[in-house]
Description:
It is built from 5 helices and 29 strands. By secondary structure, the protein is mainly beta. The chain has a 6-stranded mixed beta sheet with strand order 3-4-5-29-28-27, with no helix packed on it. Strands 22-26-25-24-23 form a 5-stranded mixed beta sheet, with no helix packed on it. The protein starts with 5 loop residues before the first helix and ends with a strand.
Amino acid sequence: MTTRTMGCARSLVLGLLAACGGGGGSSATDDGSTSTASTTTGSGSETAGTDTSNGGSETSGVVPTSGPTTTAGTTDGDDTSTSTTGAPAFDCGDEINSAWGMGDDVGTLDGDAWTPGRDGDGRVNCVSWQTVPTGRWVRVVGTRLDALDAEVKAAIPGWNDRGNEDWHGVLADWVGMAWDTRHGSERGWVTVGGGHDGSSNDGVYRLELRTMTWNIERMPSDSSLWPAEYNANFTNFNPAVAYYEANPENPEGVYSDEFFDPDNPASSTRTPTSRHTYGSTVFVPELGNAGKILMGCRRYWEYDVETATWSLPKFPFDAAANYSGETGYAGENMHGWWNAAEGRYYMSATQNYNASQTWSVLAGGTEFRWEGGYPSGGWAALSNAMDQRGQTLHTLQYDAARPTSMLVTDLDTREVVGHELTYGPSAAMLEFDPQAGFDGRTLAHVAETGQYLANLEAVGEGMLWAWIDEATWTLERAEIAGDYPAVVNSNTETKLEYFPDIHAIVWVNVAEEDIRLIRLQ
């Protein structure tokens, strides 16, 4: 996968058929990934390798020094004793811990590689979770996404990913995730990831944290039904492109980013093609019977979790693909969030370069509303990271790849409070390329520690992690010890999430790596 800078985002010309990720395809890489035959990714080891496709790979092994600072008085039923591994022990009988399994299989812990012990119903046992070290990167053994390959191929004979990255591209190509952080329901989804020439995989895959397994939520499309010419830019389906170009005012509302073929009904599902989703996917539990995933990528889409179906997409403001003022649709580097009080999905930024702004829409795809530069606009809106916690939106703004300020937005009142960042001693000497951007940024607000975990890309150092203290707004390097991935993708997007009831930060990196987590004390 090739590295892309904000210079691409600022290009003055973007073809009508550019992917939602807007520009730059993926080059063929050999990431050394392999697939296993495990349906639930319950076992197996990772393949070591080096990702040289993202401008500065991280090395495997232990990353030295401290983890997050924790505040006094934070509890999850913990007492002051410790488990046999030295991790803080807690009462598995407490209600807050009742969502874990209650079996006695503790699993295994080999350094910072944890193989969960599970109850008869598949849930990770509470006594196993007790053994996980705190304040360190811990690898959850058996949680590789590409281990689902065998199940997909068994269900769809002859299926293959036509992209040059296969499963790697599903997570790595500027793709984010939607998360459910509710107690007992902790999970996340990656939907139609990939795009360009990296991956054609349009499946929906679910990560269950209480079982620590990947599952297939919705099978990818049968690739044998696709025309041979659908083999380069998978964001745009060739028959749909041809139909739209011949019928731009078509009554069906067809556009290039969906599977539509008037001559082949079997492949004309009207579902989204694979694409760079950035931070546009958001899970809303109160919609439908089991919640819906909303996606503002190119157009507005809704995915119903109960029925595993996509609704027909809507163009913002009924406009076709253009970026002119208030009629633009969805460009690149976008972030989505849900305002529960209004029942509206927000998407920022519409790709209109220095005029990049925000739009919102009611659930169901009606009453689009132009929001202007809220909470930010222009170039800043094309290079930021967001994390929503209830009705508060946290926005980390970057300038030429350098984190510069944090915006805290009250979604009920729309009040935006800005905080300028200072760099502490460990980060003061970091250098940033003034001509570059960093569009793989992520953010997790951890209220119990009073900190944010964010990533950045410094000259000569590749992707780094940083803690930002919300009391002083000081940024320091986050040199966190533990089991760090051998293959690191800097396009983290929204694949980092904090779960308050299990007191852990979860990082989904690439398909050929197990997930990592930091359990907080």
